[in-house]
From TrEMBL:
This is Cytochrome BD ubiquinol oxidase subunit I. Keywords: Cell membrane, Electron transport, Heme, Iron, Membrane, Metal-binding, Transmembrane, Transmembrane helix, Transport. It comes from Pseudarthrobacter enclensis. Pfam families: Cyt_bd_oxida_I. It comes from the Bacteria. GO terms for cellular component: cytochrome complex; plasma membrane. Belongs to the cytochrome ubiquinol oxidase subunit 1 family. GO terms for molecular function: electron transfer activity; heme binding; metal ion binding; oxidoreductase activity, acting on diphenols and related substances as donors, oxygen as acceptor. InterPro entries: Cyt-d_ubiquinol_oxidase_su_1. GO terms for biological process: aerobic electron transport chain. The chain crosses the membrane at residues 20-41, 53-71, 91-115, 127-150, 185-205, 239-260, 371-393, 405-426, 465-482. It is found in: Cell membrane. It is a multi-pass membrane protein. Residues 504-526 are annotated as: Disordered.
Length: 533
């Protein structure tokens, strides 16, 4: 058993799992804030229902994200102590700001939003949600600043073998971070858009299946009411149709945003980590062609085993340089350069353990980089295409009766999750064998890098890491079951699951609100804790 490989598996499993919650929290939080703003400005009851329902799901996911995120700090201390020592002087500032400022603001004002429905004035209550959402965006920014420094070290000097931050402004305005932040935010909105679309489609389909909504002679929907089912009124139809169309629009806008920021990110990667992007394109030789499909022997790290089946000339040059003629260095050209700059073998140093003196493999696992890059784009494109189709199919006010289309819409929620996960796996594994990547550009800071083999804790055995891996995976599996059961329960329950007062109020009074002192939407009555429950 190899302690380094087990530590990497543990980090990968827990981090990707945690990141499943992050984009939904950020994206859904922004959408809920926009919907509540619409309710505050218009007073329309359907916006209140939307705010309560989607807000309920947002809170469930937020709580699970906090629980799974705690493990990350535990991991750094247990399995990656050498890495923590190396980056500590740089990471101290952004991570402290994330915990003490961004997360503190986010959690505090989210608490005020949860429990302030009756106690706070509507404008103040809405402001609490916006402050919490902005806090989550800043939280993401500080985390990405730290991660981007690992991709492109700036603002430091090497003192006694460790990077010491000398220019905080350079660290916080790292061009890698300034591109990665909007790319991540658009990815989060893509998740939220698909989430709204899939769930709203399911509820519209259920209304058709149960005969609540019918189709008129002109092909347009006739919203109905089910007197025996709480919340199944005409406003309920508006909730789901409006949610679906908002989700579709958000999904399309976010795909365009990820495409633009992803292109900028790709151009930076070609400059800062040329081997990563060459491996992502299976570009073994210098050239301009983009590989649409390449095949090779599974597990082989030999470029001679890879054959480009479909290649489009000029596209790789455009991705790297913005033109169609500049030749881009391939793996076979980059390997000698990496060996010359950073050595052919790991140093004979006890910090590397049994790996000391081993030959360095500078080519990342190409199956991961090549297909991870394409899965990221492919899943994102599928979600955007589904959004366009959904807008067309619902132009007459409801969804088709087909249960298969409903299932596709629901399972389509997973597509942007897959795109986000594939993108992060590509970003992190494509950096190998470095945990802190060096700057190949002569204008960058020289000799600031760290091999992954030197980052693992020397005092932790493979057996201890196996035990922690099994334990954490089991805990995460339990949390996954809890989150899925809670989400499924409240999704199936519809708006009534977030507004139990609808099940007890007459149809003409079921919004349970009283007029505000100054007009506009008022404060919902009832137990203040009901929304949290």
């Amino acid at each position: 058993m190899d302690a380094l490989e087990i530590a990497r598996w543990q980090f990968g499993i827990t981090t990707v799992y945690h990141f499943m919650m992050v984009p939904l929290t950020i994206g859904l939080g922004l959408v809920v804030a926009i919907i509540q703003t619409a309710w505050h400005r218009t007073g329309k009851p359907e916006y209140l229902r939307m705010t309560k329902f989607w807000g309920k799901l947002f809170l469930i996911n937020f709580i699970m994200g906090v629980a799974t995120g705690i493990v990350q700090e535990f991991q750094f201390g247990m399995a990656w102590s050498e890495y923590s020592r190396f980056v500590g002087d740089v990471f101290g500032a952004p991570l402290a700001l994330e915990a003490l400022l961004a997360f503190f603001v986010e959690s505090t004002f989210l608490g005020l939003w949860i429990f302030g429905w009756k106690q706070l004035k509507p404008a103040v209550h809405l402001a609490c949600l916006w402050i919490a959402v902005i806090g989550s965006v800043f939280s993401a920014y500080f985390i990405i600043v730290a991660n981007s420094w690992m991709q492109h070290p700036v603002g430091v000097e090497m003192i006694d073998g460790r990077p010491v931050m000398t220019d905080a402004w350079a660290v916080f305005t790292n061009n890698t971070a300034l591109v990665a932040v909007p790319h991540t935010l658009f990815g989060a909105l893509a998740v939220a858009g698909a989430f709204l679309l899939g769930i709203a489609w399911y509820h519209l389909w259920r209304r058709r299946r149960d005969g609540v909504d019918t189709i008129g002679a002109d092909g347009k929907v006739i919203p109905g009411e089910a007197a025996t089912i709480a919340g199944r009124d005409r406003a309920d139809h508006t909730v789901w149709l409006r949610s679906l169309r908002i989700g579709a629009v958000v999904a399309m806008i976010s795909f365009a945003g990820t495409a633009v920021t992803g292109d900028l990110q790709g151009k930076l990667m070609f400059e800062q980590q040329p081997m990563k992007m060459a491996a992502a394109e299976a570009a073994c030789h210098d050239g301009t062609g983009f590989s649409v499909l390449s095949i090779g022997n599974i597990g082989s790290q030999n470029c001679d085993d890879i054959v480009a089946v479909i290649e489009v000339p000029g596209i790789l040059s455009f991705l790297a340089k913005g033109d169609f003629t500049t030749e881009v260095k391939g793996v076979n050209t980059l390997l000698p350069e990496y060996k010359e700059n950073y050595g052919t073998h790991l140093p004979d140093n006890p910090i590397y353990g049994e790996r000391a003196g081993q030959e360095i493999e500078y080519l990342p696992v190409m199956e991961v980089t090549y297909w991870g890059f394409r899965m990221m784009i492919g899943f994102g494109g599928l979600a955007a295409m589904a959004a366009v189709v959904a807008l067309w199919l619902t132009r007459k006010g409801t969804v088709p009766e087909s249960p298969w289309l409903m299932r596709l819409a629901v399972f389509g929620i997973l597509a942007p999750f897959g795109a986000n996960a594939a993108g992060w796996i590509f970003t992190e594994m494509g950096r190998q064998p470095f945990v802190v990547a060096p700057n190949p550009d002569p204008s960058g800071i020289d000799q600031v890098f760290m091999f992954t083999a030197a980052a693992v804790s020397p005092g932790v055995s493979a057996g201890e890491l196996i035990a922690s891996l099994v334990t954490l995976t089991a805990v995460y599996a339990v949390l996954l079951v809890v989150e899925v059961k809670l989400l499924v329960k409240y999704i199936r329950g519809g708006v009534v699951s977030a507004m139990p007062e609808l099940a007890h109020a007459p149809a003409d009074e079921n919004e349970d609100e009283t007029p505000g002192d100054k007009g506009g939407p008022g404060k919902p009555a009832g137990d203040v804790l009901a929304f949290a429950y």
